[in-house]
Protein: NADH-quinone oxidoreductase subunit J
Amino acid sequence: MSGEFIAFLLLALVAIAGGVLMINLTKVVHMVLALVFSFISIAGIYVLLSAEFVAAVQILIYSGAITIIMLFGIMLTRHNDTSEPVSSIGKRILVIGGISAFAITMYFGIYDLDLQNQAKDLHIDNTKQIGIELYTKYIIPFELTSVVLLVALVGAVILAKRDEKKEANEE
Structure:
């Protein structure tokens, strides 16, 4: 086995473990830390794929900014710390069936994938290639993403203000 394969296995295991921990942990801060481990290991996988720009963006945007926004959103909104009722067996079967269907679909989608016909020089100047593609062909979706993020930020502030008004009225 090559070193690259071992690195991929370790990074994949950390990503999966972080996702599983995020779902199963009860404290929000611990959940966010598990999510950060997943994001950073995914960035490591991007480095193995010679996508250094995407790895840097993964660390800067997801591990940094999105995680901080999630923590601020949780801190700004008021939520009750009551435990959720135990889900029924039917709901669990439905979730397991959905996950299985997704896994089977992904397997058959990747099984016949032909990667031999791809361009060999994608790793050369990939930051420049991404910049050219992003700011020529995909400028409208790029700007719409910034508008969606702005709307989410304004929505979080409105929710926080609404909770403050409810607290003031209750006292």
